[in-house]
């Protein structure tokens, strides 16, 4: 009589368990997807979509509170929330929210939309630095957001920007 590989039912169970955990180790993503499915009752794609929708809703509330256009140049593109006065980034670090806009929006919400913040477009926000306002020149108003952006990217400093802006005004 040939010797069977496993003698007892317990040995069979152990072998199966070992094989299963080997499979789990090499199929991490399937394991996690299954857990997510069981826990939330939805697939990964669905939770991602609903998270995005939630952030969109939050954005709507936040920008209705702080303004739906840039407080500096009136554009409605690429809006951000700016900490009025200096130290926006430092403030964000203090509250430990460096995890992107969503986390910051949730923090604002958690604080009941406190005063001291305003809507600025990305460009005005970036070029504001520690100063009172951005160094971009919005006076002519002939530049679109795209053109502003190109000019800003090519200059990188207040002085270089002013030179380039003058060239645009002069029509060079
Ligand atoms: Zn702006
Ligand atoms: Zn500006």
Structure, explained:
The chain is mainly alpha-helical. The chain has 3 domains: 1-41, no CATH class; 53-132, no CATH class; 135-172, no CATH class. Helix content is 59%, strand content 6%. It has 8 helices and 2 strands. It has helices at 9-26, 28-40, 44-66, 88-94, 101-110, 122-128, 145-155, 158-170; strands spanning 79-83, 117-121. A two-stranded antiparallel ribbon has the order 1-2. Helix 3 (44-66) crosses helix 5 (101-110) and helix 7 (145-155) packs across helix 8. The longest helix has 23 residues, at 44-66. The radius of gyration is 27 Å and the shape is elongated. 14% of the residues are buried. The model has no long low-confidence stretch (mean pLDDT 80). The structure holds zinc ion (ZN) (2 copies).
Using the alpha-carbon principal axes, give the shape: elongated
Radius of gyration: 27 Å
Described by strand count, sense and barrel closure, the largest sheet is:
2 strands, antiparallel
What is the SS-derived class?
mainly alpha
Strand content: 5-15%
Number of domains: 3
Provide the spatial order of strands within the biggest beta sheet. Answer: 1-2
Mean pLDDT: 80
Please report the distance between the alpha carbons of the first and last residues.
97 Å
Q: What's the total helix number? A: 8
